[in-house]
Amino acid sequence: MSFYETLSRYYDDIFPYSPDQQRFVEQYMPHYGRILDVAAGTGNLAAALSGSGYQVTALDVDPSMVQRIRAKQQAGEAPSFETLLMDMRGLDRLPAEYYHAVLCVGNSLVHLNDLTEIAESVIQMYDRLVPGGTLILQNVNYDRILRDRVKELPVIERSLAEGTLTFRRFYELEEDGILFQGRLTLDKDGAQEVYENSVRLLPMQSEELLHIAEQYGLPVPELYGGYKQEPYQTGSTALVAVFRKPE
């Protein structure tokens, strides 16, 4: 079984539903509306928003993630909403000025190859918004990662019925980016199953995101350090950016 197939099985345990995340999104929404969740993972946020009455489309580039969403829907563990197997670089296939909110959270943008691809994807997301709509982006705060030369994120450990699950995330800082190494370990009955993967990330900093907005004529985003709307600081663990499209 591949790393991401295994990760999709335990994704909801590692990254559980966040009420703060849902409240953060819904404060920018009318009492109805269409939401596009880009790089939706296993669909926890999409399911919560759909359950609140919004018309949700969730997409992800990884087949195992999309399959997991659909399996939860078929089992009655998630409401019915549209799911798409799609790369975020192909959003021009979706209707323009259609969604009341577009979301790209969970440190997904930095998996793209360069700042040009990030800029093009952000523009495509913004163009999908109706006038007055909101684009919400969330990544790890790479201002802090690079300043403090962070080499490992906090360890995530979960006690499951089948054993103890541990997820470790390592950063190897390089001149042209960051080599991210993930290690998923399941301890059960004295035996260990270990799954590992590495991928190169582009550590986009806050100033680079602001430059993209200025360069392409997007509104200046509101920046937060998390979903409780704490003010963004260089030492924040997250970077949440909110772009509001004019009416």
Task: Provide an overview of this structure.
The chain is α/β, with parallel strands linked by helices and 247 residues long. The chain has 2 domains: 183 residues, Rossmann fold, CATH 3.40.50; 54 residues. It is built from 7 helices and 11 strands. The chain has a 7-stranded mixed β-sheet. Strands 6-7-8-9 form a 4-stranded antiparallel β-sheet, with helices on one face. The longest helix has 13 residues. The relative contact order is 0.15. The model has no long low-confidence stretch (mean pLDDT 95).
Secondary structure topology:
Elements: H1 3-14, H2 19-26, E1 34-38, H3 44-51, E2 55-60, H4 63-74, E3 82-85, E4 99-104, H5 115-127, E5 129-140, H6 142-148, E6 156-160, E7 163-174, E8 177-188, E9 191-201, H7 206-215, E10 222-224, E11 238-244
Parallel strand pairs: 1-2, 1-4, 2-3, 4-5
Antiparallel strand pairs: 5-11, 6-7, 7-8, 8-9, 10-11
Helix amount, in percent?
25-40%
Strand line-up of the largest beta sheet: 3-2-1-4-5-11-10
Sheet/helix structural class: alpha/beta
CATH architecture of the largest domain: 3-Layer(aba) Sandwich
* CATH topology name of the largest domain: Rossmann fold
**Strand-and-helix sequence, N→C?**
HHEHEHEEHEHEEEEHEE
Shape: globular
Number of strands: 11
| Number of helices in the DSSP assignment | 7
Assess the beta-strand content as a share of residues.
Answer: 25-35%
CATH class of the largest domain: Alpha Beta
Q: What oligomeric state best describes the polypeptide chains here?
A: single chain
End-to-end separation in angstroms reads 48 Å
CA-based gyration radius: 18 Å
Low-pLDDT runs: none
Integer average pLDDT: 95
Main beta sheet, described?
7 strands, mixed
- Classified in CATH, the superfamily of the largest domain is Vaccinia Virus protein VP39
Tally of separate domains: 2
